[in-house]
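As the next step, I wrote out a protein sequence along with its fold in token form, included below for the reader:
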Amino acid sequence: MAGKKVYNGLDVVKFILALLIAQRHIVQIYFGTDSKWRILIGNWLSNLGVPVFFTIAGFFLFCKLRGKPHLDNVQVRRYCGRILRLYVTWSVLYLPIDWYIWYHGERDVAAGLLDWLHKFVFCSSIVQLWYLPALALACWLVWKAYQLSLHPLLILAAGAVFLAIGVIGDNWYFNQRLPEWAFNLLWYYLQVFVTLRNGIFYGLFYVALGLCLALYRPRVPLGLSLIGFLVSFAGMFAEVWHFTDPTSYTNFVIGAAPSALFLFLFASALPLKNRPVYRRLRGMSEWIYLSHFYFFYFLGWLRPWIPVPFTSKTVTLMIMIPLLIFAWAMTRLSETEKGRWLRMLV
């Protein structure tokens, strides 16, 4: 569309962050507890991914609805419905892996199916898919609050409160210091809702941040936004170094909030000329994020026939190279007439 502003820098950032999230899960599964990458990637670099994804999604959704708080709900319902359909579709696509785990695991298929249904409703059966229902819920909540004429900064502040609760509840350093009644309440919550990583405690703040960016369009000099990102990102590292157990993982990092803001401001202002590569990087980032767990299981199934020693480097290469080729192939195929249906999967 003529005159439509594009943000190629955001596509580059999404691609890099999708790779980091895939690498985070490789580190979690294949790297030793003494590996330095557990802190550097598992708790620092990769924890910027989802906050930025939420922020970008909120920004583009509310750019369409800018200044129209009482607009018909159709656009938001369609968007949330599409995200939920994507969640259901990929949950079904991952069912063969779930079935394999049930059939070869300690529990029987019936117990596995009940656990799958519980996680499907309240979180996700495969780790990375939790983002999809969380995004749909957060977008709906922010939209309803905005439609009720609540000030966007008030919505953002409410999101910050829930994010702070998520940080306290998810991080061992903080939740071990809770009073007994609060810790018990957290334990009972997790028995039912599985995780704090959802559209309330995680997504609400960042989608509201996307709303504020869409409405106010702050203009920050490129150099200043880069400095802001580097400073806040360094603070994020200091946070995970001090408050995270190196042998475990945390999903909420409060320093990710200013880091996501400044990275968004920097990337959205990059003067990159329009080229097909940026659109393809966007598609590849979605394929990488949604499909990468399949490549973990492929590697596990093929391991007896692979003569190469399994080290952190070889495992990373054996997963990431096929994953990149697959993501590139799916993105290019989706550009063809016969492959257009693939766009329904991302």
